[in-house]
């Protein structure tokens, strides 16, 4: 069994792994991007593609974050290959810690209202639900916007 060991920046060599997790039917709430979109985003300095690695260097999951404004970072994705063994929680905390120490003031994300599992995990990491809004492509679907002010973490 692999345990989370460290974060590393993703490279284009990780795109196959990233796309495999996106296309896994277990990840029904995840949007899939094509290879070219991932290549373009990995090259963009505003995008942060991070890989969770185990002690032996095995990729365990990935996260995508993007800087929208100075100090404000949108968390676009986090997916781990195996659930229910603590990898996701440890990985998420490592990402939060990295951005806290990197001068970001706020992390925010949106999550499908019906995705109770994710909402619980995000809440356990300190994210607060601040509003809801309809999904642009399907107004019958509701997104919950959650925020984590990193200034409160920096102050402790």
List the helices and strands and how they pair.
Blueprint: E1 4-9, H1 15-23, H2 35-43, E2 47-54, E3 59-69, E4 72-80, H3 87-100, E5 106-112, H4 116-124, E6 128-135, E7 138-149, H5 150-154
Parallel strand pairs: 4-5
Antiparallel strand pairs: 1-2, 2-3, 3-4, 5-7, 6-7
Q: Classify the beta-strand content into a percent band.
A: 35-45%
CATH class division:
Alpha Beta
Contiguous runs where pLDDT drops below 50 for at least 5 residues: none
How many domain modules?
1
The major pleated sheet works out as:
7 strands, mixed
Order of helices and strands: EHHEEEHEHEEH
Terminal-residue CA separation: 34 Å
- What is the tally of beta strands? 7
Shape: globular
Helix-strand makeup class = alpha+beta
Residues in helix, % = 25-40%
Whole-angstrom Rg? 15 Å
Rounded mean pLDDT score: 90
Description:
The chain has 156 residues and is α+β, with helices and mostly antiparallel strands. The protein has a single domain (4-154), classed as 3-Layer(aba) Sandwich (Aminopeptidase), CATH 3.40.630. Helices cover 29% and strands 39% of the residues. It has helices at 15-23, 35-43, 87-100, 116-124, 150-154, and strands at residues 4-9, 47-54, 59-69, 72-80, 106-112, 128-135, 138-149. A seven-stranded mixed β-sheet has the order 1-2-3-4-5-7-6, sandwiched between helices. Strand 2 (47-54) and strand 3 form a beta hairpin. It is globular. The relative contact order is 0.15. The model has no long low-confidence stretch (mean pLDDT 90).
């Amino acid at each position: 069994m692999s345990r989370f060991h460290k974060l590393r920046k993703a490279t284009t060599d990780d795109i196959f792994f990233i796309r495999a997790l996106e296309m896994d039917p277990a990840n029904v709430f995840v949007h899939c991007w094509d290879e070219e979109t991932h290549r373009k985003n990995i090259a963009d300095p505003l995008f942060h593609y991070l890989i969770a690695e185990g002690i032996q260097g095995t990729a365990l999951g990935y996260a995508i974050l993007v800087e929208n404004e100075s100090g404000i970072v949108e968390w676009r994705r986090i997916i781990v290959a195996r659930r229910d063994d603590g990898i996701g929680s440890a990985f998420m905390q490592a990402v939060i810690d990295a951005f806290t120490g990197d001068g970001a003031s706020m992390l925010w994300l949106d999550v499908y209202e019906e995705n109770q599992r994710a909402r619980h995990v995000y809440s356990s990491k300190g994210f607060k639900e601040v509003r809801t809004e309809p999904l642009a492509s399907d107004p019958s679907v509701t997104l919950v916007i959650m925020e984590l002010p990193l200034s409160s973490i920096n102050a402790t």
